[in-house]
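Blackboard transcription, Thursday session:
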Amino acid sequence: MPGTLIIAEAADGAVAPHSFELLAAGRALADEGGGAVSALVAGDESLAQSLFAHGADAVYLAPAGSLDPGYAETGAGAALAACEAADADVVLMGQTSVGRDLGPLMAFKLNTAVAMECVGLTIDGGRLRATRSCYGGNANAEVTWRGDVQIATVKPKAWDALAPDAGRSGTVTAIDATGEQRVRVVSTEAAEATGIRLEDAEVVVSGGRGLGDPSAFGMMEELSGLLGGATGASRAACDLGWYPPSQQVGLTGKTVTPNLYIAVAISGASQHMAGMSGSKNIVAVNRDPDCNMVQVSRFAVVEDYKKVVPALIDAIKALD
Amino acid sequence: MNIVVCVKQIPDPETPASQFAVDEAAKRVIPAQGIAPVVNPYDPQATEAALRLKDAAGEGKITVISLGEDSARDAIKHALAMGADEGVLLSDPDFENIDNFQTAVALSRAIEKIGDVDLVLMGRASADWDMGVAPLGVAEQLEIPCVTIAKAMELDGDTLMVERVLDDGFQTVEVDLPAVVSISNEFGEPRYPQLRQIMLAAKKTVQVWSADDLELEDDEAGEDNRWLELEALYIPQVESNVEIIEGDSPEEQARNLALKLREAKLI
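(Written on the board underneath:)
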């Protein structure tokens, strides 16, 4: 019975948490369709135990660094060898800097397809069926594969990792194969955290074209400042020159996942939703009760922002 | 230096969700009334990247390719108006609703037909299906390397230095040409076509190539030959749990919102 291979990532001597989510997804598929769950990871044997504990039946060890970001050509060689050794017909990896390159590369080398950023995976008649979001979250697509090997990248946080079971164990096999690396990595740097970056802020207050007036961003900044957060804008507002493009939230801007996202005069077109739909709590201030942003919010005030936002600033000040 | 830029025409991602509709039986998006399709928002950055390289080199030719219906001419015209030199529209009934694997095959055949291409630039993904697969696919078909999600580029002889965006940082890589590079929005603002250029663009050539012109086999194009089969397309039912904050005045609504946020420990 063919099995599932997950491509695990490791950094600083530990398996990345997202890889445990992949193992949970792989285990669920194995429960439905049978077969073993194997994991490929680059590094030494010390990484294997946590993979077993989180659901792997077998671990394949590729040379250290061969699955690092930028090394997809190297990694594809190892992944193809592991896929064959594990007799896998399902390959899962993260929608990460690694998976975004490795998934398509593997698919084209194996003459099959890849479904990116999947949020649902089931077995239907022995074959994988995946659900993914498209059109900026407006639609869901369900896809199946014509080729033998079914490759999917998995959206982070779409599965919960299994509780580790230290009693689980399995086989460890070294994979020596790597692919020819034509892209030369010169340097890799972590992003600098200076001030409150939009992407790191726990509170984001964003304004849209519905503000009707660029000076209204002063009000947005006052509110976000009061809450210790950052200020964002929709693409429409940035295109009008009302706010710097560096602060644009959306498909072609920043992706934010704050604890609190306050959307002021933003209707919620997919361009914008793509950048903030992962926010944990959304508050909408909008005159249109039927607009998408109000519908997806936890709290909404259906009123003119010009009256609500200044009053909200006063009310928050009065709380303390 | 020969650069190819691949662009795509897509439904406007600014379309309000309330006007977004799907024909579930046909598994297609129904175009919103009165909202014209637009150039995929990442693609003008790919064109901009090509123009900057051409400007820096002082020579070169930029060919824009789009695969799509006749309306995709507008995406080509946009790139020509930005300053690209020639356009090629890949148009064939067999290109409708094909997947990104098939698209990559068709694009790579067109690139081979153009010949002597040093660099292929594409947007990092298309905003409709949002897969980001085609750049890697084109590179695999052409057996050349691919660098994804570039925010800056510089050419030194035949070597391209690329700064790329990672999930949690940045990476500098170098690659020998020919290569494929996908361009991210971090690349910076694309130039805006000026009236004079728009008029010049109208005189630039746009060739139209069919599946036969690309010498594609019968089983390479066509919706029935997709490698990733689309089983269903639907608008997900989002259960709205919104709590509308009431109040007799905007001030009272604001006060009630502040109290709710405090209660929920959000502020």
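Lecturer's comment: Chain B touches chain A through 80 residues (CB under 8 Å).
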